[in-house]
Design goal:
The chain is α+β, with helices and mostly antiparallel strands. 32% of the residues lie in helices and 27% in strands. It binds adenosine-5'-diphosphate (ADP). Adenosine-5'-diphosphate binds next to strand 9, strand 11, strand 15 and strand 16.
Length: 301
């Protein structure tokens, strides 16, 4: 099969591993920089061009769209969908997962475990917002943050108030969330492919840090999931409409709660922590499922 990997950087570990797995399994593979694709949308037959040539004959596309290029990247994925090419994660699902509020709303509608969360943009009713989220200690987040930046633990009501007021000054969207103290500074990354958690790892922040992000000095180990954690992760991916997803959960006193669902989960951390061939597993899924016309949304909705 001819497989395209939409990625800006062929040197990234995840991209390299996907190329390797494709070649090992006898597929033809091309890494395509989505920002260099140009497209026709006016005609009956949509097409995508790259480096002066039309992109044709693909059996599957693996989108690895970075957060900073979501807008153009999802337009390229949508164009492949309009051309009836099977995309492992569809454009609509990627867009959903990139919007934290939309994701939390969708997950809550389906009754999945979430930390009690309030959100706001510019309310002056700080105390009411704090009360809605259950009072201090609270975690306050800038919606636009990644890798743990803009995630603050406010241990007292006074601290929460001043952080919320400072964030309001930035004119940012904020989340105010119940602090899951019992998670002990650790979270669990569940790597979902299809309807299964194919690997999982526990990430723990360095001593004295409540954020588990590896980028902030955290470390990863293997972990055994409970059946409830497994089904929460699989359902979260399904609700988002993602075939490949990294679902981050915290172990709370009221069961597993979802932090985030990632549509381009990195392979390096999880393959190194578990020794599993996740790139190969993604290809196994593609081999079973890729077919023309199997795109559910075709970019609609
Ligand atoms: P980012 O998307 O920037 O990584 P997260 O919302 O995932 O931000 O938060 C970073 C880390 O902080 C999480 O992985 C988790 O370890 C910790 N954390 C976030 N929210 C909470 C919370 N409500 N309770 C306890 N720990 C939290």
């Amino acid at each position: 099969m001819k497989v395209g990997i939409l990625s800006r950087n062929p040197e990234l570990y995840s991209t390299r591993r996907l190329v390797e797995a494709a070649q090992q399994r006898g597929h033809e593979v091309l890494v395509i920089d989505p920002l260099r694709c140009y497209m026709t949308i006016a005609s009956q037959s949509p097409s995508i061009h790259y480096k002066g040539e039309p992109l044709e004959g693909f059996g599957a596309i693996i989108p690895r769209i970075g957060a900073s290029i979501t807008f153009y990247g999802t337009a390229v994925v949508r164009q492949f969908e309009m051309m009836d090419v099977y995309c492992v994660n569809e454009s609509v699902a990627i867009s959903r997962s990139r919007d934290k509020l939309r994701s939390l709303q969708l997950l809550s509608r389906k009754g999945l475990g979430l930390p009690v969360t309030g959100f706001a943009h510019s309310t002056k009713y700080t105390q009411d917002l704090i009360n809605l989220a259950g009072g201090a200690p609270l975690v306050i987040k800038l919606l636009e943050g990644t890798q743990g930046i803009g995630v603050v633990l406010a241990e007292t009501g006074k601290a929460a108030e001043s952080v919320i007021e400072a964030f309001r000054g930035l004119k940012a969207h904020i989340l105010v969330q119940e602090f899951i103290k019992e998670a002990g500074g650790a979270d669990i990354r569940c790597f979902v492919v299809g309807n299964k958690v194919v690997a999982s790892m526990m990430r723990k922040g360095k001593e004295g840090e409540f954020r588990s992000n590896i980028h902030r000095g955290g470390s990863a180990t293997t972990v055994r999931l409970t059946p409830e954690e497994r089904s929460t992760a699989v359902r979260a991916a399904q609700v988002m409409g993602l075939n490949v997803a990294g679902v981050d959960i915290l172990r709370s006193n009221h069961g597993p709660v979802i932090m985030e669902v990632n549509s381009s989960p990195g392979l390096e951390g999880i393959e190194k922590a578990t020794g599993k061939d996740i790139a190969g597993t993604i290809f196994e899924f593609i081999e079973k499922n890729a077919a023309p016309g199997k795109t559910k949304t075709r970019g609609k909705g």
